[in-house]
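Hey, resending since the last one bounced:
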Amino acid sequence: MAVKKIKKVKKEGVKKEKKITKKPTRAKKEVKKNPMQSLAKEIDKNLFKIMLYPVASKHEEVEEAKKQIKKIYKKGKDSIKQLILYMIHEKLSQANELKIIHNFQTMKKKYPNLDANQARIQVYRTIFNNNYSIEGMVRMLEFLGELGDNPATKMITYHLSFYMSIENPAMHILRHAALGALSESDSEYALETLLSYATYLDRREEIIPPLKEWKEKLDKSKIPAKRKKRYKEDIAEFFEFAETEEIMHYR
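The structure tokens again:
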């Protein structure tokens, strides 16, 4: 009997230990949220404020949203910057659909599993989402120029390559907006790109306004003095050439 009692006590002790070391409850698990996911939601929310102007957000809200994204971008690690740029890229990529009129038929063709009401809602969202309008894409390109570092600048040149590959008025507008964004960027790569285009582009007059902007801000840039001097000479040489070609009236 004594042996059985001892065994019973040991078993109860084990049970008590199990209670002490039981797994955390679901509520406790939820406290430990993924910081990256929270940040992604914050970025997405602010980007939507920018893209839903003027129907679902006001001018002041757009400016505040841009301010918040810039703050996250400037302070963030490379992974955060990549996330922001990826989200912007996805929105700019809608340029591929500018030739499409979004209506019930096109939505049903694109998303065959949508019911009639969902398709109508999707059409409405597309019409009032700046992802699908030229002016919305222009604003997003300008925003990339404001971010102004090398990755943001490379994103501009990536989309600029696409715009330059298509000849139509919509792409001309986006092309000029991208060139303007390169003039706003503080990245040395932006200036290198513009000078490269100045050498090979057929319509060199398109490069004059952004190069003029760079000429005016070059002294204040953080580019090393030796390279700064070379860039000044390259810009001066291009303007001299432009004078002889009689395209300087675009300045």
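The two ends are 105 Å apart (CA to CA).

Sorry for the duplicate.
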